[in-house]
Amino acid sequence: MKVHRRYLLYFAMTAVAVAIGLGSAWAQGYPARPVTLIVPFAPGGASDVIARIVGEYLSRSLAQQFVIENVAGAGGTTGTTRTMRANPDGYTIQLGQMGTHAAAVALYPNLAYRPESDFEPIGMIAGLPIVLTARKDFPPNDLHGFIHYLKSNAGTVNVAHAGVGSITHVTCLLLHSLIGVQPTFVPFNGAAPAMNALLGGQVDYICNAIPDAVPHIAGGTAKGYAITTAERSPAIPGVPTSKEAGLPEFDASAWNGLFAPKGTPKPVIDRLADALDKALDDETVRNRLLELGCEIPAKSKRGPQALAALVTSEIARWTPIIKAASIKVD
């Protein structure tokens, strides 16, 4: 009997060793063909730009093209659902963010995916401060004046956003809850179209991720009232922090990370996570992200485990805010 058990143990250990060896060898050959990187928003927005910066590095580092595919719709949930349903072989991954992997849980009762269990986290790319941005001729000159103006004119003010559940939508929900107003939301199919509408004077303001705001505030074609960082951003040093401006509770980060479908082999996830880690240490990549105003995560906040923990904490944070606003999408 003991001999029999010894043989079983031997064969079991051999099978595990072979499986590990095959997985490692397969990962070393990955990727063997182009990889699709889904961005669940329209081209030109912050998430799209960040995905292209990182995708260029991954293409060079892993010697295969990382092809950006923009799948916009439903606040980013359309493209995210496509990722969830993709073959988990490492050849379809996604740039996900606070809207798609946290806020969507409370906003969409019939959400087709579960952010905490239907994806394999690869790693966080960058944190993106939110900038309260208005058209250049919007009357208020500072955040104090902005708050007073909204309280007096909430019924006639229009707010742009990139879709229900998007970062632009959810962070403005937070802002409005702090001020105690309910202006009219105007949806667009992405942050770039929303920003274009603001520049054209069709809407009054937007809570936008910093890469979408920097060129326009710096160029004088839009106003910046506050940024949700502990310190002012070198990219737009004239814009005060929300704490400096008198509303410290307006605190949010439009983080972006890479995800793969559930069941993607661990060796592939590890290979992608390692390549992403190297990308964030690359001087060219860092400089491009920093120029956009991004906050690059420290080593301790990178990788699959850190991103998984972030998703869990962000769902817990945004769910009560969204439920208090009584907004749901079928």
Shape: globular
Q: Largest sheet, if any?
A: 5 strands, mixed
CATH C-level class of the largest domain is Alpha Beta
CATH topology heading of the largest domain: D-Maltodextrin-Binding Protein, domain 2
Q: Could you name the CATH homologous superfamily of the largest domain?
A: Bordetella uptake gene, domain 1
Count of DSSP H/I helices: 12
What is the terminal separation in angstroms? 61 Å
Helix content: 40-55%
Number of distinct beta strands: 10
**SSE string:** HEHEHEHEEHEHEHEHEHEHHH
| Total count of domains | 2
What are the segments in which pLDDT stays under 50 over at least 5 consecutive residues? none
List keywords for this structure.
330 residues; alpha/beta; D-Maltodextrin-Binding Protein, domain 2; five-stranded mixed sheet; three-stranded antiparallel sheet; globular
What does this structure look like?
This protein is of the alpha/beta class. It folds into 2 domains: 33-127 and 254-324, Bordetella uptake gene, domain 1 (D-Maltodextrin-Binding Protein, domain 2), CATH 3.40.190; 130-245, Periplasmic binding protein-like II (D-Maltodextrin-Binding Protein, domain 2). 47% of the residues lie in helices and 17% in strands. It contains 12 helices and 10 strands. The protein has helices at residues 2-28, 46-62, 77-85, 98-107, 143-153, 167-179, 191-199, 210-218, 242-245, 266-281, 283-291, 303-324; strands at 35-39, 66-70, 92-97, 119-126, 130-135, 158-161, 184-187, 205-209, 222-227, 256-261. It has a 5-stranded mixed β-sheet with strand order 2-1-3-10-4. The chain is globular and about 75 Å long. 47% of the residues are buried. The model has no long low-confidence stretch (mean pLDDT 91).
